[in-house]
Structures are given as structure tokens and as C-alpha cells.
Amino acid sequence: MPRVCFTLQVDPERLDEYRARHAKVWPEMLAALAESGWHDYSLFLREDGLLVGYLVTDDFAAAQAAMQTRDVNARWQAEMASYFVDLDQGAADRAMRPLDEVFNLEAQLAAETGEPS
């Protein structure tokens, strides 16, 4: 299953608030993410506000599109938008900047042994 990693920028002056909001995400938001194909989803936050997200999904575009149909996502994005800087597209979930994967240990080990990764 493909892995996706993306970055966003959180306002450095609001890091504590951002962390607090993610300490207990709304149960209906958690369910919507899981039902929309977001698996093993994690967020990592650096002290300068760099946010790195990671997830596994069969189809990232489809997983994003599925979340766009959810009312809970619209409410969550509206509440979270003020925590981010440089949101060209108005909502964090549409401004994610996916990164190209350039190394994966398991894939290279599997290639060495001829096993599927």
C-alpha cells in the first residue's frame, strides 16, 4: 500500500494550541478519516512549525476526495485554518505538499532478497 508524506507550516506562535487541538481529535473526524482510507496517519511537528504528515492509503487523491464530502471535515478545516501560514488554497487539507519518497528500507531489503515488499 502506498505511503504518503506531506508538509505544512503551522504558525510558530500557536504550536501549543495546535498540539492541544490534536491531543483529542473529534471522534467523528477520526472515524471519517479511517472510513475514507487514511491509515497509519501521523503528524509530526517541529519547533519552528514545520508539520510533517504521514499516512498509508490505496489512493491518496481518492482519500482526499472522500474527506471533501464529509461535513465534519469542513468544520474541522474551518477551525484549523487559522493555525497555518501560507495556505494558498484556504484549507490545510488542500494545501498539503506531498514529498517524493526517495528511500525505503523494506523495499530495498526486499529487492536484495527477491521478496515482495
UniProtKB/TrEMBL annotation:
Transmembrane segments: none
Stored Pfam families: rhaM
InterPro entries, alphabetized: Dimeric_a/b-barrel (IPR011008), Rham/fucose_mutarotase (IPR008000)
The protein's name in its UniProt record: L-rhamnose mutarotase
